[in-house]
Recover the amino acids of this structure.
């Protein structure tokens, strides 16, 4: 049934009149002689086993408070009751489909009044109670964290606003809900250890808690009114609502009625009628003499006593509810507050006060106490958040702000809350929690500062390396140039020993220059100062040129260098210098780590990309060492006895450059079987 349908308020007269006594008589005679006797009205009543309010035994006999009431009303109205039994879920589904005319023991809630018609007279007021398996001491809702909580499927204490699932979500309590078909199964789940905690209504709990291995907690919540529910558009709904309310009102007016007897028998567990005082017969003449006065006084006293009892019961119920609520609040580890929006009064828990260095008795129980302690810079934001939450502009109350401690310092508070509304949707209470997050906030700030210092140090390091690298390249280029002139004997002939020594100087200078260039590149990359250009160039020509430059050292090691470029590879748009740098680094590494066999460089087109591969038959790399390949200054062969020279920057630079150009580099390798490096870059970078 669509939730957009609105509940209709049924009303109707309790009889009808005719114009005159004569017309009444005519009508009565016609009815007696011309109209057959009408059949009794059959009312289909949905029931489910939920003792002591409703009970169904093995013989399918229905009893309890609600059956007693509906059977009494039916007898007074001349109805025939037809019980339709099932589980709670089955019964509510039948009510949705109009297969029953009345459903007993239904909580009256705002969402449900969109779906069903309800009678006006409340039968009972009930609320949810949390029980646990034996030995598990629970005193507050937050202690349900990580527990298995058994609940009745579809119950208002389970799924409706203010139910256990709603409260868990509002307070951020992570627990697992175990659904059962009725409250008996909830208690059975606790007794068997299938659940750690369970939610039942107060009446059921008080009646059956001694029959199961369960323990009651001080946690109570979600007070609700229990009434009769009827199909929203049922043909009998207007009549049934009118007569049920009429009869219930009569029963409530009579202290000896079946209503109060049923409460005592089924809920208070004291079977039997109330004691009736009978006056001796000989007092009748005297009583008749002052009958009028006595009758008036008796009625007045009766009304006063009944009203006094009603108020006393209501005040006692309210007092007990408040005691349970305060006990639950005191048991919580977070600071708790409960704001009565209408009066401005606020209950503050001991933990709430102690967070700020106070005893709870030192604080006035008003909302102004709360607001006076908020940091002036945060007050406007907190007030705006309150207004938005109360007006419905936001559906969650969750905010951070600062509050003044008794010692004058401010602490950081994280607050959550949920709103309680009355039947008309008007906000009446906000219940919330406070958590002191000062240490967490300060840690986030020891952490932000350290991060900024580390980043500054890293930038300073990169700038230093870039500067020093530039300063070192100038003299190195001079050394390489002058040794080249001397080795060409342009300045005069050299002895064999001189040529050998100058060759060593030139080789060392070239090695040092390569190292400085690598350091300069990695510094620029880390400082995000390295730029790549996009220009057209002949990729096959660059690959062959680079391979020719790498061929002499390969042949010197007895290796075969193969070049295999697909015929459809041609001009691409990217950074020519950086592509050549990547290829040269990969070829140099392959040659350096291959002692026997070959090195192969290949290139193909693959859609919008070109793929360059460098494959060798060298020493290979283990799976454990693969993650180190692209880390700056990391080499797999380390230590004083390492066999292969190098800085450990080449592959790191290759990966960073390929990513800068919109591509990537991957590797496949096995120890003793060589390695395959694959570079993929866009053709139109």
């Amino acid at each position: 049934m669509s939730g957009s349908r609105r509940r209709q308020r049924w009303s109707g007269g309790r009889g009808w009149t005719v114009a005159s006594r004569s017309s009444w008589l005519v009508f009565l005679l016609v009815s007696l002689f011309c109209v057959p006797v009408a059949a009794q009205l059959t009312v289909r009543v949905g029931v489910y086993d939920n003792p002591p309010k409703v009970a169904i035994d093995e013989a399918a006999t229905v009893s309890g408070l609600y059956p007693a009431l509906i059977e009494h009303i039916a007898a007074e109205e001349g109805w025939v009751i037809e019980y339709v039994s099932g589980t709670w879920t089955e019964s509510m589904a039948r009510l949705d489909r109009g297969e029953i005319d009345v459903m007993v023991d239904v909580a009256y809630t705002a969402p449900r009044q969109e779906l069903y018609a309800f009678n006006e007279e409340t039968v009972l007021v009930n609320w949810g109670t949390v029980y646990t398996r034996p030995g598990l001491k629970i005193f507050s809702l937050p202690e349900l964290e990580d527990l298995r909580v058994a609940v009745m499927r579809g119950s208002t204490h389970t799924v409706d606003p203010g139910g256990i699932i709603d409260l868990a979500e509002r307070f951020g309590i992570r627990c697992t809900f175990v659904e059962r078909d009725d409250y008996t199964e909830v208690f059975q789940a606790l007794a068997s250890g299938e659940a750690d905690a369970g939610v039942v209504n107060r009446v059921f709990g008080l009646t059956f808690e001694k029959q199961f291995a369960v323990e009651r907690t001080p946690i109570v919540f979600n007070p609700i009114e229990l009434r009769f529910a009827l199909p929203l558009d049922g043909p009998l709904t207007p009549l049934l609502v009118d007569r049920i309310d009429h009869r219930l009102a009569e029963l409530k007016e009579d202290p000896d009625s079946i209503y109060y007897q049923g409460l005592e028998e089924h809920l208070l567990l004291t079977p039997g009628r109330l004691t009736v005082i009978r006056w001796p017969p000989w007092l009748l003449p005297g009583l008749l003499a002052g009958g009028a006065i006595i009758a008036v006084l008796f009625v007045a006293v009766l009304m006063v006593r009944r009203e006094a009892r009603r108020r006393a019961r209501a005040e006692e119920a309210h007092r007990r509810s408040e005691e349970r609520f305060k006990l639950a609040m005191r048991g919580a580890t977070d600071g708790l507050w409960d704001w009565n929006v209408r009066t401005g009064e606020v209950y503050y828990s001991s933990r709430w006060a102690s967070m700020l260095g106070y005893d709870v008795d030192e604080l006035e129980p008003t909302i102004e106490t709360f607001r006076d302690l908020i940091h002036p810079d945060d007050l406007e934001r907190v007030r705006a958040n309150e207004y938005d939450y109360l007006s419905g502009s936001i559906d969650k109350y969750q905010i951070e702000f600062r509050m003044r401690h008794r010692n004058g310092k401010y602490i950081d508070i994280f607050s959550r809350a949920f709103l309680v509304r009355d039947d008309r949707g008007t906000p009446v209470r906000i219940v919330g929690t406070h958590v002191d997050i000062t240490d967490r906030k300060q840690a986030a700030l020891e952490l932000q500062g350290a991060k900024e210092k580390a980043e500054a140090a890293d930038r300073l390091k990169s700038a230093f390396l870039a500067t020093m690298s530039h300063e070192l390249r100038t003299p190195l280029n001079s050394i390489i140039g002058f040794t080249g002139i001397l080795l060409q004997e342009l300045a005069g002939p050299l002895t064999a020993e001189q040529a050998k020594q100058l060759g060593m100087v030139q080789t060392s200078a070239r090695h040092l220059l390569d190292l400085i260039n690598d350091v300069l590149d990695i510094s620029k990359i880390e400082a995000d100062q390295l730029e790549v250009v996009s220009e057209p160039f002949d990729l096959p020509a660059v690959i062959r040129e680079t391979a020719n430059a790498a061929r002499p050292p390969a042949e010197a090691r007895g290796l075969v260098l193969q070049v295999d470029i697909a015929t459809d590879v041609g001009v691409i748009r990217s950074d020519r210098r950086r592509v050549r740098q990547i290829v040269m680094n990969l070829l140099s590494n392959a040659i350096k780590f291959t002692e026997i066999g070959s090195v192969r460089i290949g290139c193909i087109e693959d859609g919008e990309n070109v793929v360059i591969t460098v494959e060798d038959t060298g020493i290979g790399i283990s799976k454990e060492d693969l993650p180190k390949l692209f880390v700056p200054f990391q080499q797999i062969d380390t230590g004083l006895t390492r066999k292969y020279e190098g800085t450990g920057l080449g592959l790191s630079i290759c990966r960073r450059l390929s990513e800068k150009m919109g591509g990537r580099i991957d590797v496949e390798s096995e120890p003793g079987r060589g390695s395959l490096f694959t570079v993929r870059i866009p053709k139109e970078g």
In short: The longest strand covers residues 215-231.
